[in-house]
Amino acid sequence: MGFIRFWHGGYCFICGAHRAWGPIRSLVRARLILVLGLVVVGLLGVFHLKENDPETDGTFLPPCSFHEVTGLHCPGCGGTRAGHALANFRLGDAFKKNALLVVLLPFLVVGIGLEGAAWLKGPTYRGPRVRLPGGLAWWLLGGILGFWILRNVPLWPFELLAPR
Fold first, then answer.
1. Distance in angstroms (rounded) separating the CA atoms of residues 138 and 99
2. Which residues pair with 11 in a beta bridge?
3. Is residue 15 part of a domain?
4. 9 lies in some domain
5. What is the pTM of this model?
6. In 10 A of CB 40, how many CB atoms?
7. Helix (H) or strand (E) holding 114
8. R_g of the chain computed on alpha carbons
9. Which residues, at least 6 apart from 129, have a Cβ–Cβ distance to it below 8 Å?
């Protein structure tokens, strides 16, 4: 039985690939290894947060420098404790620690996933991308700044926004 030639004129009859796609495939392979490594590191971080309570066990993360200097809470204060509560499926506790993180985290995860898929596929990607209209980006920034200010107001409804 002789050699069966699949490549004809730089085109593969089996998979439809073109020889010029070789560099793109190696780029996608390298990016896939990087993305898988980042996913593994992220899952290890979630596992670490699940097993180690930052309030009792301590954490390897430094304390919030803004809170240390001013005594006020930044928008991220309580985020590590909220991550611990989310990793243990305690949504109510997570919301008490940092409501902004709990609300924005699903959008952040989906956005990073979509952009990661686009980056992984490289120039051949034709799927959905994350595009924030300029107005929405400004509203989001205003919401974060409003959360930052309101969680530091020492009145009853706003005290609920501070990490507890």
1. 20
2. 8, 18
3. no
4. no
5. 0.73
6. 10
7. helix 99-121
8. 23
9. 114, 115, 118
Element (H, E) at 7: strand 7-8
- Overall size of the chain counted in residues: 164
Q: 52 φ, ψ to 5°?
A: -115, 115
Whole-angstrom CA distances from 68 to 72, 73, 118, 151, 154 are: 8, 9, 39, 16, 18
- Rounded average pLDDT per 10-residue block, the chain, 164 residues: 48 51 67 88 91 80 87 91 93 94 92 84 75 86 94 89 85
- Chain centre distance of CA 91: 18
Dihedral of alpha carbons 77, 81, 86, 92, sign: negative
Domain extent, residue 68, equals: 24-159
Type and span of the H or E element at 29 = helix 22-51
| Within-domain flag for 5 | no
How many domains are there within the chain? 1
Given CA atoms 13, 15, 16, 18 in this order, what sign does their dihedral have?
negative
Asked if residue 102 belongs to a domain, the reply is yes
